[in-house]
Design goal:
Layout: H1 2-27, H2 35-53, H3 56-80, H4 85-108, E1 113-114, E2 124-127, E3 131-134, H5 135-153, H6 155-165, H7 167-172, H8 177-203, E4 207-208, H9 215-226, H10 230-251, H11 257-285
Antiparallel strand pairs: 1-4, 2-3
Helix pairs in contact: 1-5, 1-6, 1-8, 1-9, 1-10, 2-3, 2-4, 2-8, 2-9, 3-4, 3-8, 5-6, 6-8, 9-10, 9-11, 10-11
């Protein structure tokens, strides 16, 4: 049971970091569906920074910078130029996949994956009764409380929600909804960058083509599940993370690997259907 809990936390961490920022963009009225691509490209640049500077800190900062730049491109196209978020998001996801392969061949002269013994893993910390965990898992827990405080207790948190719910009133108060959306997407980009750095320099110490493996989509699903509510989004994150951990566990009992890998996505469908069904039921009562 304890091993399953540890696996759930490890699987949930990249989703958790991504969903924290993704919830804020959702609150402003923008659903960022390019997070799969942002996580993948951040994973590559985290390895790149780690390899060249032989420092996990440089790797994490490189991943954060890549996530920020990627999200600013999304913001430019979807917030400033008002392009369709689905078209742009899908295009950026495909671009990130192709770009990471191109960069890997150009920089490291390999294809498929890159690993080097000189790269430095993000250090673990030891907690009583829990054991060793990546430093980024502790950081994720601290960031949750910061996000929770800002979301529920500050004027900035109220303005984020107003940007999505009543941008005309926000504009009348002299506050630009576009500026708030750019800020939310910038924060989201940094968080996705952290998630990518976790994947490639803590979960693994390598870059593998396509290593985001749908985690960005699961984070988007968690944000949709929460519908802009930070706490419900995190509930969704741990549900999907537990499903990923359970899928891996089931393989050890002889279950088909393909069926086990489908489990998180089956749970996503069930959770979203249940949430929408409950919403329709409440609407009928009202």
């Amino acid at each position: 049971m304890f091993d399953f809990l540890r696996a759930t936390i490890r699987m949930s961490t990249p989703l958790f970091l991504t969903a924290l920022g993704g919830t804020w963009t959702r609150q402003t009225g923008v659903l960022n569906i390019s997070q799969e691509g942002a996580m993948l490209i951040s994973s590559f640049f985290a390895v790149l920074g780690n390899y060249f500077f032989q420092s996990w800190i440089a790797g994490v900062l490189s991943g954060m910078a890549a996530g920020l730049i990627f999200n600013m491109l999304f913001a430019l196209l979807c917030v400033f130029l008002r392009a369709n978020i689905w078209v742009v998001g899908m295009t950026l996801n495909i671009l990130a996949d192709s770009l990471s392969i191109l960069l890997m061949k150009s920089v490291f002269h390999v294809k498929g994956g890159f690993r080097d013994p000189r790269m430095v893993r993000i250090p673990d910390i030891s907690l009583p009764y829990i054991g060793n965990f990546s430093l980024l898992i502790l950081l994720a827990a601290i960031l949750f409380f910061i996000f929770w405080f800002v979301d529920f207790k500050t004027v900035f948190g109220m303005r984020l929600k107003a940007a999505g719910e009543n941008e005309e009133a926000l504009s009348a108060a002299g506050i630009s909804p576009v500026s708030l959306r750019f800020k939310a997407l910038a924060i989201n980009g940094i968080m996705v960058g952290l998630a990518g750095a976790f994947l490639s320099t803590s979960y693994l110490v390598a870059f593998v083509s396509g290593m985001s493996a749908g985690r960005g989509w699961l984070a988007v699903a968690a944000v949709i599940f929460g519908d802009g509510n930070l706490l419900w989004s995190i509930v969704g994150v741990f549900l999907f993370g537990a499903a990923q951990a359970a899928g891996i566990e089931l393989q050890s009992f002889g279950f088909s690997s393909h069926l086990a890998l489908m489990l998180p996505y089956i749970l996503v469908i069930i959770a979203l259907v249940f949430k929408n069904w409950k919403g329709v039921k409440l609407a009928k009562k009202a």
